[in-house]
Design a protein that fits this description.
189 residues; mainly beta; 2 domains; 5-stranded antiparallel beta sheet; elongated
Length: 189
């Protein structure tokens, strides 16, 4: 029977290591960790994102990068292009920390609003927007729906955007940059 106890202990250790890790990470937020719920740029208001184990049943999105730039989605960021949402996090421990306070996240399962033309994520070439004059905020919409224009690129200023009857430069709130847009057929500025 003296052999049975070490075998049982060894089996317990093996089984424990094979079970999925559903416990929430602790410490600083890092790329590779998972969060719940899923996200889309602009829909964080009222949501409380929290870290969960990536094997947890409520794991909905994975952190692809931690950064300090561009929470609004209205200016270029250094988040990956396929970012579905950006989540502001407080990991300062009560001290001022402006270095890594935004988690760029990608939903684990579809839908992926961050994919080009899908109506969410970061503004970039190929994305579609609603009429900026019809709302107080610039809004990305799925290109499969009716839309005012298609993003051509970002520019350092409105004057650097393509010129002509089919083009517009949409300035961002609080930013000096402009979103260069080709208007959809029949749309006017």
């Amino acid at each position: 029977m003296a052999v049975a106890a070490p075998v049982v202990i060894l089996l317990l250790i093996v089984v424990a290591n094979l079970l999925p890790n559903t416990s929430a990470p602790t410490g600083e937020w890092k790329a590779g960790q998972c969060v719940s719920p899923a996200g889309q740029v602009g829909d964080q208001e009222g949501k409380a994102f929290h870290r969960v184990g990536c094997d947890a049943s409520d794991a909905a999105a994975k952190i692809t990068k931690m950064t300090s730039a561009g929470l609004t989605g209205l200016e270029p960021t250094d988040c990956p292009d396929d970012t579905d949402a950006m989540v502001k996090v407080d990991q300062s421990g009560g001290h001022l920390d402006l270095t890594h306070n935004v988690a760029c996240i990608r939903n684990i399962k579809a839908p992926h609003p961050g994919d080009v033309g899908q109506g969410g994520g970061l503004f970039r070439a190929g994305d579609c927007i609603s009429d900026p004059a019809a709302s107080s905020s610039l809004k990305e919409v799925p290109c499969a729906q009716s839309h005012w224009g298609t993003v051509v690129r970002w520019a350092d200023s409105a004057s650097a955007c393509p010129q002509g009857a089919d083009y517009d430069a949409v300035r961002t709130l609080g930013g000096s940059r402009a979103l260069c847009v080709r208007r959809a057929s029949g749309q006017t500025s």
